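Field reference: sequence -> structure
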Amino acid sequence: MSAEFVDTNILVYAHDGGAGAKHEASVSLLGRLFEERTGALSVQVLSEFYAAATRNLGMTSAEAEAVLRDLAGWTLHRPGHADLLRAAELQRRFQISWWDALIVNSAQELDSAVLWSEDFTDGQKFGSLRVRNPFRG
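Structure field:
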C-alpha cells in the first residue's frame, strides 16, 4: 500500500477532545493509518504538532512528547537542502505558502498517494499526490 501523508492539523484535531466531528474523523483516520501501517509525516509536521499541543491544547511537554513517541513507527521524511530547493520551486509553481510547499515536497518525497489536510482544496493534485480533506462529506 502507498503511504498516506498526514498534515499537522489532523494530528492536532485528533488530540483536541473539544473539536467535535473533526476530532472523531481525525481519530478514525489515524487509527486506520496505524492499523494499515501506511501513515507518513515529516519532521516539520511533528515540530508543528508539538508546538500547537503545548501552546494551544494545554498538553504538557511530556504529554506531547508521548504522542511523538507513538508516531515513531510511521514513515518519516527528514528534509535536507535539496528539499528546500524543491519546496521553493513548488511554492512558485503552485502559488502556495512556504510551509505548505514543504509539506507537499515531503509527501512527494515519500511517494505518498494522499495528503490528508484541511489546508488545501479537497481533490487538489500536485503531480500524482492528491489532497484529501477528511472533514468533507
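Note: The two ends are 24 Å apart (CA to CA).
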